[in-house]
Amino acid sequence: MSTPERLIEATRELLWERGYVGTSPKAIQQQAGAGQGSMYHHFAGKPDLALAAIRRTAEEMRATAEGVLGGPGSPYERVEAYLRRERDVLRGCPIGRLTMDPDVIANDELRAPLDETLDWLRERLAGLVEEGRERGEFAPSLDGEEIAATIVATVQGGYVLARASGSTAAFDAGVRGLLSLLALNSPARLDG
Amino acid sequence: MSTPERLIEATRELLWERGYVGTSPKAIQQQAGAGQGSMYHHFAGKPDLALAAIRRTAEEMRATAEGVLGGPGSPYERVEAYLRRERDVLRGCPIGRLTMDPDVIANDELRAPLDETLDWLRERLAGLVEEGRERGEFAPSLDGEEIAATIVATVQGGYVLARASGSTAAFDAGVRGLLSLLALNSPARLDG
DNA sequence: GTCTATAGCACGATAGAC
DNA sequence: GTCTATCGTGCTATAGAC
């Protein structure tokens, strides 16, 4: 792996683990096995490197989500697959966690990938919910964009509950609760 | 206000704004208008001061939640009042945001208040949901603890969505979506 | 109780040799 | 491209005068 590659990967790991404020250039260099001068040769500085890392993580997250949301099954089944997909729950969401970082939020360039990714996810889910509503899988009174926001928020908040308690139980409970609510008024769903 | 008081309040503000990793003793001293020696006279160090600040914020959050959850109205109405209560959405949750702080999660003493507070909140809501279910306000198939986890997660995740987008819209959408799901199978609720 | 002084180290970045 | 050296600043904390 090339040095810029290793620097980006090291930054991705550290941003996930410790956030932007908690990640130092020195730590990145050590994790990447690269020297000081090497890092500053390939990147303008910490914000520049973080931007590359965040963009890659955002792309990866979109691809992972699309893999499930664009997969087989009815809209409800795909939403369920998204909610139940395997996650490193106690590590949290590598994109969502950055929203709590003051220096990321203060920098529009760093914030943009977060906004775009979560916005894309909500719109993707909203379309799926609308489709499911037309099929009678979801109650007609539901609003696709609102339910999509609830779904994404439940996942993001699930990470918070899990990390606070040091256990994945609360995340799983939140997901099960949401699925039970979504299954209401959906006779087909209560069969299985 | 006494010096220890001012130091705790300054720490609460900074922890909310910048998290534990992003908050320095120097910044605390400046915000509190206290000197270096003064801070170390009253507190053992940054973790000790943070613990006092976090405990106070946790207590305050419990009291605020109890004010709504223990208020007037049916269980559904009290859950709705909790979800719709005024919040400083773009600032995020002063307790929830700390779960993304690696140094807080690594320190059991600092993590404990977060765990206890969110756990209390979930149990309080779970009891309310169970009560509402017995009254026919919520579907019989729902599980109190699961729905409680979904409610708290929706709020915590709503903050994430709001901060990513720089707007409160997504938080509000998530709350409306959850309320519409909770109102399903509750004929009384669809009247109004 | 509060102050200033100082410690030892890490921060984020630049300079310039190789 | 990568290295070491260095910069000026800020970190967390201690010491000791007042």
UniProtKB/TrEMBL annotation, chains A, B:
Residue ranges flagged as DNA-binding region: 24-43
Transcription regulation listed as a keyword: yes
GO MF entries: DNA binding
SUPFAM superfamilies: Homeodomain-like, Tetracyclin repressor-like, C-terminal domain
Domain HTH tetR-type: from-to ranges: 1-61
InterPro entries reported for this sequence: Homeodomain-like_sf (IPR009057), HTH_TetR (IPR001647), Tet_transcr_reg_TetR-rel_C_sf (IPR036271), TetR_C (IPR011075)
Gene3D superfamilies in the cross-refs: Tetracycline Repressor, domain 2 (1.10.357.10)
Domain of life: Bacteria
Any Pfam family the entry gives: TetR_C_13
Keywords: DNA-binding, Transcription, Transcription regulation
PANTHER family from the UniProt entry: HTH-TYPE TRANSCRIPTIONAL REGULATOR LMRA, TRANSCRIPTIONAL REGULATORY PROTEIN
Name recorded for this polypeptide: TetR/AcrR family transcriptional regulator
